[in-house]
């Protein structure tokens, strides 16, 4: 018997005493798909043009080996997925088109993503999508869909419509629903006089984009809010209130990005409310450090709280879990592996909790036991369950993946110019 098996058996017995069935937990965990974001692989550059990254987001670092072609990106993604247990999704952005044709955002068609789709099918991956409302000359004076200039709005409306067609195509081809997420950076650096009219313009533009019904089994639209961005510090048109209202009245998924709120405000505390009223939730699991810095997701309190909220409230079925971070100071494949595995681990930890019992304890008013037991649970051998899961899924156990990533860095990444 392997050491891992033995430790798992012990952990299994320990959790069983709490009434937690680790076998059932691992089955459930294995069904959760994480949508890994392509843009960690090349610092949000994409393949549309050489435009600088704009839209108030920023990547720092120049770690060697960033992918410069779709083929390199796919190679890196394969390396990362090989170290992540389970079957997942890939989250693409419009600027990641793979074509020889010279096309702009308002001319995109499904065929420009054919190579991604056939690769995803081959790999057994689902696909998600995002129209790109940044890094483009039509991002004018900080505005896209909410621009006061009708021709600017029109360009982006056309892009949005085309993105939806592409998402529907991806969903149809892969047989898994493709979540199409709309985030626009529009806003003002300094205090605006008129906060209302840009929001009204954004609402109208979105309504135009979403006018056509597309099959819900192929694609679902999501809308992502934000508090501020670089250069849009004073006012962001697509705020949380804006998209709560928009998403609820238009039956869209509402996307919560962990970095898009005030520094002490957490998305974990929003999930239960949103779940009561929204069609569904999209998460951008990220890690803000002092601002929306998009650091790699670590096993911090908020990540664990997000996991608990999803599990305790049974929200996994109506939640689509995506990642959103970009760090160019470390190996980018490692960034994916660390962030994705952490997100899975946080869910596993939550699933290993005797949540029904905890709910009863709370209802009975025994807050002493609630505190004592939740603290005690922190010492439970969840890692033994995780290691067993990794082994049974044929992916590296513990830190073994790092050796593989270092080898990959030496043999593949360092060869890149
Ligand atoms: C920006 C948003 C958005 C982007 C991606 C690249 O603040 O979080 O989701 O990070 O679209
Ligand atoms: Zn985001």
From TrEMBL:
Cofactor(s) the protein requires to work: Mn(2+)
Pathway, per record: Carbohydrate degradation; L-rhamnose degradation; glycerone phosphate from L-rhamnose: step 1/3
Enzyme class of the recorded protein, top EC level: isomerase
InterPro entries per record: L-rhamnose_isomerase, Rhamnose_isomerase, Xyl_isomerase-like_sf
Key words of the record: Cytoplasm, Isomerase, Manganese, Metal-binding, Rhamnose metabolism
Pfam families the record matches: RhaA
KW Metal-binding (keyword) present: yes
Domain of life according to the entry: Bacteria
Enzyme Commission number, as recorded: 5.3.1.14
Cofactor stoichiometry and binding remark: Binds 1 Mn(2+) ion per subunit.
Function of the molecule: Catalyzes the interconversion of L-rhamnose and L-rhamnulose.
Matching NCBIfam families: PRK01076.1 (NF002203), rhaA (TIGR01748)
Full protein name: L-rhamnose isomerase
Species for this entry: Candidatus Enterococcus testudinis
């Amino acid at each position: 018997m392997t050491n891992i098996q033995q430790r798992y058996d012990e952990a299994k017995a320990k959790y069983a005493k709490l009434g937690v069935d680790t076998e059932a937990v691992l089955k459930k965990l294995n069904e959760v798909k994480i949508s890994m974001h392509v843009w960690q692989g090349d610092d949000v550059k994409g393949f549309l043009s050489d435009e600088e990254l704009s839209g108030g987001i920023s990547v720092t670092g120049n770690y060697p080996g960033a992918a410069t072609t779709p083929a390199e990106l796919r190679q890196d993604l394969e390396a990362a997925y090989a170290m992540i247990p389970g079957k997942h999704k890939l989250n693409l952005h419009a600027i990641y088109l793979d074509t020889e044709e010279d096309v702009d955002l308002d001319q995109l068609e499904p065929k420009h993503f054919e190579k991604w789709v056939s690769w995803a099918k081959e790999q057994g991956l689902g696909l998600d999508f995002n129209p790109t409302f940044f890094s483009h000359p039509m991002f004018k004076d900080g505005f896209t869909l909410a621009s006061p200039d009708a021709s600017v709005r029109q360009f982006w409306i056309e892009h949005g419509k085309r993105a939806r067609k592409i998402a529907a195509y991806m969903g149809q081809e892969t047989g898994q629903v493709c979540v199409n997420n709309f985030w626009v950076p529009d806003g003002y650096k300094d205090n605006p006089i008129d906060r209302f009219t840009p929001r009204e313009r954004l609402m109208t533009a979105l309504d135009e984009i979403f006018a056509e019904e597309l099959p819900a089994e192929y694609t679902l639209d999501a809308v992502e809010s934000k508090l501020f961005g670089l250069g849009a510090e004073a006012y962001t048109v697509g705020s949380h209130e804006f998209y709560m209202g928009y998403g609820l009245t238009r039956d869209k998924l509402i996307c919560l990005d962990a970095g898009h709120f005030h520094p002490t405000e957490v998305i974990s505390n929003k999930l239960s409310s949103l779940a009561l009223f929204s069609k569904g939730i999209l998460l951008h699991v990220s890690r803000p450090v002092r601002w929306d810095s998009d650091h790699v997701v670590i096993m911090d309190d908020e990540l664990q709280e997000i996991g608990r909220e999803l599990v305790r409230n049974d929200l996994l079925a109506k939640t689509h879990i995506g990642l959103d971070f970009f760090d160019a100071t470390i190996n980018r494949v490692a960034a994916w592996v660390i962030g994705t595995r952490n997100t899975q681990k946080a869910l596993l930890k939550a699933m290993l909790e005797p949540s029904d019992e905890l709910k009863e304890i709370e209802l009975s008013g025994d807050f002493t036991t609630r505190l004592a037991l939740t603290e005690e649970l922190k010492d439970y051998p969840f890692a033994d369950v995780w290691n067993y899961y990794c082994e049974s899924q044929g992916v590296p156990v513990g830190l073994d993946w790092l050796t593989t990533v270092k080898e990959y860095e030496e043999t593949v990444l360092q060869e890149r110019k």
